Amino acid sequence: MTRDELTEAFEAERSKLEAVAFRLLGSHSEAEDAVQEAWIRLGRTEGIDNLGAWLRTVVTRICLDVLRSRKVRPEDATTPDDLEQTPAIRRTPEDEALVADSVSRALLVVLDTLEPAERIAFVLHDMFAVPFAQIAPIVERTPVATKKLASRARQRVQGAPVVPSAELARQRRVVSAFLHAAQAGDLAAVLAVLAPDVVRRVDATALAPGMSAELRGAQAVAEGTVVLSGRSQLAELALVNGEVGLVLAPQGRLLLAITFTSEADRITSYDVVADPDRLAGLRLAVLSPISVVR
To answer: Which of 1, 48, 132, 139 could cysteine-pair with 143, CB 3.0–4.6 Å?
Structure first.
C-alpha cells in the first residue's frame, strides 16, 4: 500500500476512531490526540491485515494508558471561577456535536466513575458491539473475565432507582419542567414548579461572590435560579442516589449535581452539590437507554 493509499484508508477510519476515543476519554481534544498517535504508530508498522481492527485496538490501548494515568494523577478540583467560565471557555461546536451523537454528558460522567478496564469493556462491547474475545487482550483478561467487567460496568451505568417506576416518572416530569424553565430563563415557569416554601441550598464550592448559600421562598429561589440560567444550559437529567436529579458536566467532567425533593408537581427543596468530597459520594447513573453504535 502506497503512502497516499494508507492516508486515504486511515482517513476513512478517523471518524469511527474518534467516536471510540471520545467515549473512552470524554474529551474531544484527548480523543484527537489518541487518534493522531495511532496514525504515527501506523507509519512505523507494516503487514497489517485488518487496518480498521488494528487501529481500533491501538487507539483503545492509548486511551487505556490515559485513563490509568488519570487514576494516578487526579485532576485539580474545580473552583467557583471555573464554574462561571466553563460554558464560555471549554465548549466548542465540535465538542457539542460529539456529545449530541448518541452520548450524553450524564453518560460521560458515569463512565468516568468506572475503572479503566471496566470502561474499555463496556464502551467497546455495549456501544460498538466489539466481541469480548477481541477486547480481552487489550484489558489483559480472559474473555469470560472481560464479560464480567462489562456486566459490572453496565450495572453502574444503568443504576437502580430507589423509588417505584410511577414515582420515578413523576420526578422526571417535575425536574424536566424545572430544567426547561431554568434554561429558558423563564421566571414564571420556574415559579410554577416551585412550592411556596421551597428551599435552595448551595455548597460553598459553587458560590459566586454575593451569592447566598440558602434561599427560602418561591420568589427568591426562582430569581436565584434564573440568574444561573446560562450555567443550566449544560445540565442534564440523571439518576442521583437512585432518584431523578441533574448533573452539570461540560465535556463529561462533573462540576456539580442537583438533588430534589418534591410533592405532587412542586419542588419543595433542591440542593446544589459541588464539594468534591460530596460529589465523590454520590451514586450517579443515566436515565435513558444506552445507544449501541453499529
So the answer is: 132
Q: What is the mean pLDDT of residues 92-115?
A: 68
The C-alpha torsion from 34 through 39 and 44 to 46, rounded to 10°, is 120
**Which residue is listed with cell 450524553?**
104
Distances (CA, A) of 259 to 120, 180, 242, 270, 284: 29, 16, 10, 6, 11
Kindly tell me if the per-residue pLDDT of 99 is higher than 50.
no
Q: What is the pLDDT of residues 269-285, one digit of tens each?
A: 999 999 999 999 999 99
Question: Is the pLDDT at 96 greater than 70, yes or no?
Answer: no
What residues make up the domain containing 294? 77-294
- DSSP assignment of 142-185 equals -HHHHHHHHHHHHHHHH---SS-HHHHHHHHHHHHHHHHHHHHT
The sign of the torsion formed by the CA atoms of 276, 278, 282, 286 equals: negative
pTM of the full predicted structure? 0.78
CB neighbour list of residue 281: distance below 8 Å, 6 or more residues apart: none
Number of structural domains in the chain: 2
